Amino acid sequence: MNLKGTKFQLQVWEEIKKIPKGSVKTYKEIACILGKPNSSRAVANACAKNPLIIEIPCHRVIRSDGLLGGYSGRGGIKKKKKLLIKEGFFKFKSI
Q1: Predicted local distance difference test score (pLDDT) of residue 54
Q2: Residue 58 is a catalytic residue
């Protein structure tokens, strides 16, 4: 598949595809993996631009404080929470 995005976005999306079902990583963890530890916000922005919500499971990326963060897919944050619960992940914080 020929995804279109910046080099950084493509790197973020590739990392997100590696997160197994039922697991999460934080925006910060992904930024660190990519060698850009101060780029958590840029990782979140890349998630928001994700063109393939199912193939690139951005719902598996959460904030470092355990809160869910955002979700640009249909249904927003409620959908993100449902997807994580369906996959067996329950360790996030609710507001």
Answers
A1: 85
A2: yes
